[in-house]
Amino acid sequence: EEWGLEPSTFAEMRPGAYDIHERVRDMNHNGILASMCFASMAGFNARFFNEAKDHDLSRIMLEAYNDWHVDDWCAAYPERFIPLGLMPVWDSEGMGQEVRRLAAKGCKAISMPELPHMMGLPSYHDVEYWKPFFTALCDEGSVLCLHIGQGFSAISGTPGAPVDNYIILATQVATLAVQDLLWGPVLRGYPDLKVAWSEAGIGWIPFYLDRCDRHYKNQVWIDQDFGGKLPSEVFREHSLACFVTDPVALKVRHDIGMDIIAWECDYPHSDAIFPGAPEQIFTEMDAAGCTEAEMHQITWQNTARFFNLDPFAKIPREQATVGALRALSPNVDTTTTPKAEYRRRYE
Asked: Cys staple from 82: which of 36, 52, 135, 220, with CB 3.0 to 4.6 Å?
């Protein structure tokens, strides 16, 4: 009844369909207008499909996954979900084909590994292997989304280290990925390429870019060519830097670049801010002295521009406020529920 559906509707839904409505209900309660959903079972980097022995069959299943994600999951609430495709990373030409196939379906965002060489694939320095993929992204205006996590193995060198090492240092792996794309051939070779550094945080950016610019001007003997620009300028031209919580970094937001900062609540990960996401990000921005105009940039405008989205195309702006969304789903159980309980319910 809360979702305006007849009880018989649920009996006709195939397993898992209920999750879509549950997700939107929770988004309402958290004051979130739209979400981009990264793959769990398949992996942010399509690792599940890449590791399969039969890549011909795997390609069929990957396309089926993408079709389900776009045509079923996102199409159930097209005004609330931003579609995100996976790639057959083992197939150079196939990636370009899948980018174009997805773009024709309205999916203009692609999730890829941060450090493909950690998966046994060619690195992003391999110009010829990745050429069909990056060319297709630029032709279609699709966004390359590099989510932290795939490159964990790059920081797995300490025997006996706790899981905290991975969780805390994960954003530092993003720096390795930026280094490969910025100082390698990709960002300079594809001027129209757009890269979203998903959940990578923003605190590392000022130091990293300062270091890049000093290195570029100081180590002239290396003979790097950034086309008359500084490395920091090239990075900002291509990037959307996404963070969950970064109270100190927000104080140097202008040094990072106000046009490239985007907030996310990360629901439903263990890092997620729920159900008080609006209150937490407002508190951080207010403490950093952000103006109202800057708050709008950070929380939705930069993302909408970067992904070429009109967030109010189907939902009027006055119905997209935190208060209006929460009014749609006021009664949500926010107590912690063990996985075993969820398994019992769905079985």
From this structure: 36
pLDDT for residue 6: 52
Q: Which residue do the tokens 């209900």 mark?
A: 25
The Cα–Cα gap between 10 and 7 comes to 6
Rg (CA), the chain: 21
Dihedral, 218, 224, 228, 231 alpha carbons, nearest 10: -70
Under 8 Å between Cβ of 176 and 115: yes
CB 338 within 8 A of CB 345: no
- Whether 8 shows a pLDDT value over 90: the answer reads no
pLDDT above 50 for 188? yes
Quote the mean pLDDT of the chain.
92
Apex 36 CA angle, 235 and 197, nearest 5: 20
Helix orientation angle between 92-104 and 55-68, rounded to the nearest 10 degrees: 20
